[in-house]
Amino acid sequence: MSEFETAEAAVQAALDAGASYADARMMHRRYESMTARNGEIEDLSQDEDLGIGVRALVGSGWGFYAAPDLSDAAARNVGEEAAQIAHASARVAARQTELMPGEVASGSWSSDCQIDPLGISLADKGNLLAGATGTMREHGADIAEGLYQIWDTRKWFV
Predict the structure, then answer these.
(1) How far, in Å, CA of 32 to CA of 132, rounded?
(2) Residuewise pLDDT in 10s, the chain (158 residues)
(3) Angle at alpha carbon of residue 8, lines to 60 and 116, rounded to 5°
(4) Residue 101 located in a structural domain
(5) Residues 20/98, Cβ–Cβ less than 8 Å
(6) Is residue 103 a part of any domain in this protein?
(7) Is the residue at 108 inside a domain?
(8) CA distances, 76 to each of 49, 80, 116 (Å)
(9) Residue 28 lies in a domain
(10) CATH assignment at residue 20
(11) Which of 5, 57, 120, 146 has the most crowded Cβ, counting Cβ within 10 A?
């Protein structure tokens, strides 16, 4: 299943559980940073996270639920849980929420990245960073520091 289809399954599960409206957001994020000082690598940090969250509306009650799992079964569970929370929220007396109908919109955006920096070996990136700070020292810098940070964030909204 594609990420978009997984998000659609989560929304459908919320609607099947009684929500009059539901939306899903999925995100997959990768992060990497490295620091060098005076020609030596000092720190490396890498992180990756992902998850899906669903908002659901039942009557006047909103519900939200999220999980760090993008499997089809987990996505459906997130949709069902969001609807159950919305059902519980709707028990509090309030005016029914009415949403205005709107046209379906579709779009995408991506930055122009010809070479994925996360696809370059750590050794190559480290050699470049350490070499740059070493060159700074050779040219008179008392303290030479360098840092790079890379984020790769992908989001889907249904």
Answers:
(1) 19
(2) 899 999 999 999 999 999 999 999 999 999 999 999 999 999 999 999 999 999 999 999 999 999 999 899 999 999 999 999 999 999 986 788 888 888 888 888 888 889 999 999 999 999 999 999 999 999 999 999 999 999 999 999 99
(3) 125
(4) no
(5) no
(6) no
(7) no
(8) 19, 6, 32
(9) yes
(10) 3.30.2290.10
(11) 57
Strand order from edge to edge, sheet including 145-157: 61-67, 40-58, 21-37, 145-157
User: Structurally, how many domains does the chain consist of?
Assistant: 1
Distances (CA, A) of 60 to 99, 107, 109, 144: 11, 30, 34, 59
pLDDT at 93: 67
Between CA 156 and CA 38 the distance in angstroms is 42
Torsion of CA 154, 1, 62, 65, to 10 degrees: -70
Residues forming a β-bridge with 64:
55
The domain of 12 spans 3-95+114-157
